[in-house]
Amino acid sequence: MKITAQEVSHVAKLARLHMSQQEIEAMTKQLDDILTYVAKLNELDTEGIMPTTHAISIVNAFREDEVKPSLERGKTLANAPRQNDESFVVPKVI
């Protein structure tokens, strides 16, 4: 067994989780199964295999940056509820 009920109980206490003895036993079994599976994965020879962040190759979907003209200040502020001919006027937050 890779993890004990005492370890599960200790971590539950640190996380302030209130677990019954039955829940601790079930969690111990589940975590032991997970750790056993991870140990099997560690047996695989991964020498020479590049690390990946995705299961499939993903190419950046963003478009190239292009410099374009901005909106005119007057058009930008035209529909603002409050403005001072230079910028939006908003309520003071602080």
H and E string: HHH
Please tell me how large the radius of gyration is. Answer: 29 Å
CATH architectural label of one domain: Orthogonal Bundle
Mean pLDDT level = 90
How large is the count of helical segments? 3
Main pleated-sheet profile = none
Distance between the termini: 57 Å
Structural class: mainly alpha
Give a written overview of the molecule.
The chain is mostly helical and 94 residues long. It has a domain of 38 residues: Glu-tRNAGln amidotransferase C subunit, N-terminal domain (Histone, subunit A). It has three helices and no strands. The protein is elongated. The mean pLDDT is 90.
What is the structure about, briefly put?
Helices cover 39% and strands 0% of the residues.
In terms of topology, how is this protein built?
Blueprint: H1 5-14, H2 21-42, H3 73-77
